Structure formats: structure tokens, C-alpha cells
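$ run holo --ligand "zinc ion" --emit C-alpha cells
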Amino acid sequence: MSLETSCCQAHKRKRTEESQSMASTPVIRRSERIWFDDGNIVLQAEATQFRIHKSLMSRQSSVFRDMLDVPQPEGEATVDGCEVVCVTDTAEDWTNVFIILYDGVKVYRPSSPFSLPVLQSMLRLGKKYGIDHLWDSAKERLAVELPTTLECWDKAYDDKDKKAKTHVYHAFDFVNVLFDVGIKSLLPAAYLACIESHSLHEVFRGAERDDGSIAHLPFEAQAALAIGRNKLCCEVPVDWLKEPDDARLCPGDCYDARFQLLRVLVRVWPRLEVISPQGCSVFYETFKSPLCIFCKEIVRKKIEASRRKLWNELPGYFDLPSWEELRKDRY
Ligand SMILES: [Zn+2]
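-- output --
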């Protein structure tokens, strides 16, 4: 039996021709972790076979439930008496997902470290085989890293140092995962993270991961980042640098301090850190600056209003639908 007939036929052909052409036939091996002696169905991904339970697959996956309802035709190949289901997914994806289905869901608890490849497997197979809880849980976990609200974005920044010690993934890799599984709603935060930490040169040419390998972005993401960066740079919020409307409330001359703040702003703006409070030098400089108390409060409120405005309009900068539209989309 097969989910992808052509795949299974190809494997059957390979088995038939095995004696004639050993050199071109992949060696089929049994998964060490996912092979249950009381399993009653064998799933084959690439050259790896998993012996599992029909009842588990039917319970977890709407696609398998429908398929396993259909009686197996006579003469189909079996392994240890179990029918064989061939799929075109990677063995790694199925290994990751079977570990979760059999051993639990701790890998994607919002408070714990996570593995991006495991989340990607959950999203890929969860979507393809209708394993809804895998999809929902993995997306929820990713959304902790790539928020859709400014409050959560700020919180992610608060937690950044703590997280950095346990797991670090390249900003480009998050974008690649979102493209792979078709999630648009988390792209604005992923794009913003790319802009904050990488130059345009890296966006187009690739950027180095911690292990020395190079991360690249899809062409569509490169274009979105170039366009978004350009639009955001044209929106530098500098109105808070003006003299306060009611200058009588300012006891000193804050002109020089405002000029110093402008210099800082110009320096950090190319990386658009103004949206991120913890990474925003301007924000800190504001409170260390010699502005009077009155002007500091005005500047603080205006910077906060600018951040909120930019965040609310963020998807549009990258030619994405509005937050409202993006949040409606389950995928
Ligand atoms: Zn002042």
C-alpha cells in the first residue's frame, strides 16, 4: 500500500531489480529508535523503515485514517507480515515526528529550548498529513520567537540573553522555515530580525552561521527585505527631536542634548533598531542624556508612539497583508 503510488512502485521496482543491479539500489535499513515488535504497519521514508501502529497513525492523522480504511490489495509487499506504506518525505522528518508521537511533546513547550529542525518536521508533516496538533503546537512555539504583537516582541527581547545561552538559530533560517511550510503571519517579525542583524550585502550574498556555514535567503525574501528596509529608512521618526510645543516647561537648554540624540539615531537607524527597546541605543541614550526631566518624558512618549506605529504598519513595509489579515490565516 502506498500514499504516493509512484514512490511505492519505484521501490517495488528497485526490490525486483535488486539481484540484477545491487549497485543502484539503496540499502533499506530499519530505524533503530522507531521499530516496535508489536507494530502492525511499516512506513518507509527514503531508505529507512519504521515499524509502527496503525491505530496510532489513524488516531493522529486524518490522511492516514482515510487511507487505512481502504483494504490492502492482494499481493502487496510486506515486511515481517506488515504492509508497507511508502512516503516521499525525508526519514529525518518522520524520525522527529515519531519521537514526538510516541515519546511526548516536551520539545515544543513555549518555556523550553527548542530544535528548529524538529519544529520544521512537525510543520511539514503536520500540514501534509492532517496532524493538526503538531502543526498548531509547532506554530505556537515559533510564534514565541517571532511574535505578532509589539508586547510579545519586547518580551522576546527581554528573554534574548537567557535564550542565547541555550539555543541560537540564524535569522535567515527562520525565514527559510516559514517559506518552506508556507506561514506568512510570522514573516514580519522574521524579516525585522534579519534587518536588525544583517546588512543588505548579507541579505543578497548570504550570512555566516555560528558553525561557519553560510545561510542564504529565498529570492522573494531578499526582495521583501530590500524593499522593506528602504521604506522603513524613509520613515525615521525624528519629530521627538523638535523643541517641545510648550518650551516654557523646559527649564534648561536641551538643544545640544537633542542634537546628540540625533547623531546616535542616525548611527543606529540603518539597522532599524528603533523598534526594539533592548537593542535600541537611542532609547538608552535618551535616559542617559542631559535632557531635562520634562523633555525626557516627551521624548520617551514620542519614541514609544513611533515604535507602535512602525510595528502596526510593519507587514506593509514588506508588501505583506495587514496584521489583521495575517492573523486570520491559519497557515
Ligand atoms: Zn528640556
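-- notes --
The CA atoms of residues 182 and 331 lie 6 Å apart.
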